[in-house]
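Journal club prep — side note

Before the paper discussion, L.F. wants everyone to see what a predicted structure for a comparable chain looks like in token form. Sequence:
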Amino acid sequence: MEKNTRIVKIIILVGVTVLVILGVVKLMKTSNTNTLVGTWSCTTDDEWILTFNADGTFYDSDSHYLYYTSTGNWDIPSDGILHFACVGDSDTYEYELKGNTLIIYETLSVNPFYSFQRSK
């Protein structure tokens, strides 16, 4: 009887540990996602604006192409990776946040691809 009680306690401890780890991982992912929510202006092109909405949608007014804008979904599937999905297009970039500066890199590149400042 004492052996069974011990096994039950171990199972409960393992279960609680797994739940705590899953909760922390979800919380970390949520906090990373929330840090990007808002409007960002490109530092090299004043007319180019990225807007990340809390519901996982985004708006990209890419003024490099005067007629081109994008809307779609965005998420952060893992720390440091930013995923954009639009109709007929899907891109994954590495990103870094330094205060109010968002730097986007081509995946596996050390050179910045784009730089944005958080709009006030």
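L.F.'s comment for the group: The longest strand covers residues 89-98. Keep this in mind when we get to the figures.
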